[in-house]
Design brief:
Keywords: Coiled coil
Structural class: alpha+beta
EC number: 2.7.7.65
Number of domains: 2
Strand order of the largest sheet: 2-3-1-6-7
Protein name: diguanylate cyclase
Shape: elongated
InterPro entries: Diguanylate_Cyclase, GGDEF_dom, Nucleotide_cyclase, Rev_trsase/Diguanyl_cyclase
Mean pLDDT: 79
Pfam families: GGDEF
Order of helices and strands: HHHHHHHEHHEEHEEEHE
Distance between the termini: 65 Å
Number of strands: 7
């Protein structure tokens, strides 16, 4: 076994317990990400994961995908090959161990069979029959018990081999997650749902800010859909700049956006949303070809804090209720009022 092989397997053995501790799904992307984190190959990546663990208590799925694309997927082929080799090394070692255990178990089966046969013959000779029969019966009972145990072990080893084969296939096929909205560059609804579920699962305190661009249909009707797209992209850019300290913005659908604010209560998230509302109201978007300018962009906001005793849909529904109220009361406001 080479030094490189030993280093690879030792590193991954450190990474796997961390993945289990933080309930990280065992996908090829996550294996590669946490392998790099454990080996400290990329200090920037390590720092990003450390910050996420400090803020969320875990690493949200969308952040894992983003870190992989930024720090690993774009690396030279040689570095990706090193990661692939490391994963392959541990899989080969596990396969070797499973194969050896299966052979040993089969040999034990044969040995038990031969021993039972010899003991049976010994008992039939009629020498110390009573004592021999007791011994034979005891060993036969034990052999039957061992046979059952070894049969179960064989089944477990076969299952483990199938799991490893599935992982091999997953590594070969690779994994590409479609979490990004193609128009705005923000994470999409799918990513939001994954991250929201992850926050609930890890008991991360958080609030949601749900916002909807006011009178968006008017922009499309008056200036065309291309101008509407420019407005969406401009709002998205401002959301990306505004997000800090672990906050994450998503395009939820149409002209609606949602932001997860970890470790933030209702009062804090409302204050932040009010600042964002004022920032968005100062946006001006111009179409250079037509010369048209949109300078009356506003948004309505609904805020909700996760109580710790509800699912993600419940907290989202509460934020949506306040958003609808903000719309009905004249738009361009943040609710609830505290």
């Amino acid at each position: 076994m080479t030094d490189e092989f030993l280093t690879s397997t030792q590193t991954l053995r450190k990474a796997i317990p961390l993945m289990i501790k933080h309930k990280v799904p065992t996908t090829p992307v996550n294996y590669a990400l946490w392998y790099s984190y454990t080996s400290d190959q990329n200090p920037i990546l390590t720092q990003a994961i450390d910050q996420s663990l400090a803020q969320y208590g875990h690493c949200p799925p969308s952040l894992s995908d983003s870190l992989y694309r930024t720090h690993l997927a774009q690396h030279p082929a040689s570095e990706q090959g090193q990661i692939s080799h490391s994963l392959q090394a541990i899989m080969d070692e596990l396969c070797h161990t499973m194969t050896g255990s299966q052979k040993e178990t089969q040999a034990f089966h044969h040995a038990l069979s031969r021993t039972c046969q010899r003991l049976s013959q010994k008992a039939e000779q009629g020498v110390n029959v009573h004592e021999a029969n007791d011994l034979v019966q005891e060993l036969l009972d034990e052999s039957r018990h061992m046979h059952q145990s070894s049969t179960l072990l064989n089944q477990q080893l076969e299952n483990a081999n199938q799991e490893i084969e599935n992982l091999r296939k997953a590594l070969k096929d690779s994994l590409k997650c479609a979490n990004e909205d193609p128009l705005t560059g923000l994470l999409n609804r799918r990513a939001f749902q994954q991250d929201l579920s992850s926050c609930i699962q890890h008991h991360t305190p958080f609030s949601l800010v749900l916002l909807d661009i006011d009178n968006f249909k008017t922009f499309n009707d008056d200036f065309g859909h291309l101008m509407g797209d420019k407005v969406l992209c401009s709002v998205a850019r401002h959301l990306q700049v505004w997000c800090e300290q672990g906050m994450q913005a998503y395009r939820y659908g149409g002209e609606e956006f949602v932001i997860i604010l970890p470790g933030t209560n209702l009062h804090q998230s409302r204050d932040k949303a009010e600042k964002l509302r004022k920032t968005l109201s100062g946006i001006a978007v111009q179409d250079k070809q037509s010369g048209n300018t949109v300078s009356s962009i506003t948004a309505s906001f609904g805020i909700a804090e996760h109580t710790g005793k509800e699912n993600g849909l419940a907290v989202l529904a509460r934020a949506d209720k306040y958003l609808l109220q903000a719309k009905s009361l004249g738009r361009n406001r943040v609710l609830p009022v505290l």
